[in-house]
Amino acid sequence: MKFSSRTKIVGALGLAGLVLVTLIMSPMLMTSFPSFISDGSLSGCEEITQADEPASEGATADIPPDYLALYQKFGKQVGVQWTILAAVGKRETDHGRSTLPGVQSGTNYAGAAGPMQFLVSTWGGAKRIPIPSEFNGYASDGDGDGWADIYNPADAILGAAKMLKRNGAPENVRRSLFVYNRAWWYVDQVEEIARKYAADGEVKVPPQADAGCDEPLIEAAPSGVVARILAYALDQRGKPYLWGGTGPDAFDCSGIIYMAYRSVGLTIPRTTFGQWPFGVKVPDGQEQPGDLVFFNAGPGTSADNPGHVGMVVSKGKMVEARCRLCGPIKVTSYRGRDAIVGFTRPLENSAVKEQLAKLTPVL
Asked: What b/e sequence results for 6-23 when a residue is b if at least 16 CB atoms lie within 10 Å of its CB, and e otherwise?
């Protein structure tokens, strides 16, 4: 299996063939550590309230009340199915009740620890990390005490939710679970548990790439040029992420924006690093469709050198090609996302204004 140059593989495979009832812990195999993690708003064209999915009688009987509350809280906050999150907790440590090594203290045979069985390297390099601080991993402070403690249920469950979201959930649950532990038998077991935890026996997936969720996005554009730019970008939903991609079959984050502007005859820089200084800066809250929103994300990026970009399609929402393991191009929420650097308006760049003046007769 090939991984991109940005992918770092850590961890170990769980023991194949372990049956669910033994609850023997299976360590995660992590890829592509994020340099920022969304604490997040729900991703998608519709604000799905994941926590409103009712729990089955079996779920309330099996899951300790404090754990159930945490699964539902962080499932909603991050935007993943709480039933999947809870099923991972069941499969890993029986919701923290397992007495095997590595649950309450220490690590198991593969170096995994805590109720959600994070590898220490995956967590962030230490079992307990002060928040805020700089680290690569999923360490999270779920209870607000200023520490990301791998053994703390609130911290571990929030971290697991972020990991699942980063790797494809909620729209591609099986991929996100496979990244959590690279064994398809594990994925099948977790999905089976999740269905039993759902009152209706289903693991629901929000319609994030559905054109029917557009509302009047294009009709509400501030100009005909912006409407055409948005139309091109939105038409790419469902296509995969590809580093350096400019279509027509796949794009990276800046590639889809570059081509959307090019579709109306406008030339802007190709890369995120070039797009950030190109557009006129727009104050937070004054952004509008067609503007760009930038994030401090990825190796070598900083507050004034952002590494990820999306295109605003409406207040609080953007279309983005996020990463190879983050699911297809889709409309997501940027409100609540960590490390927003700022907004820019390429159409206010002097060179673009000149291009627009020449194109006005045909636009």
From this structure: eeeebbbebeeebeeeeb
210 Cβ contact list (under 8 Å, min separation 6)? 45
Q: What percent of the chain is helix, strand and coil (3-state, nearest 5)? A: 35, 15, 55
Relative to beta strand 292-295, strand 308-314 is antiparallel
Among candidates 177, 165, 23, which has minimal Cα distance to 100? 23
Class of residue 260 by CB neighbours under 10 A (exposed 0-12, middle 13-18, buried 19+): buried
* CB distance 106 to 100 below 8 Å: no
**Ramachandran angles phi, psi of 87, nearest 5°:** -65, -35
Distance (Å, rounded) from C-alpha 178 to C-alpha 157?
Answer: 17
Rg (CA), the chain: 21
pLDDT digits (tens, 9 = 90+) for 247-296: 999 999 999 999 999 999 999 999 999 999 999 999 999 999 999 999 98
pTM of the model: 0.57
CB 51, CB 73: distance < 8 Å: yes
What are the strands of the beta sheet with 308-314, ordered from one edge? 280-282, 340-345, 292-295, 308-314, 317-320, 330-333
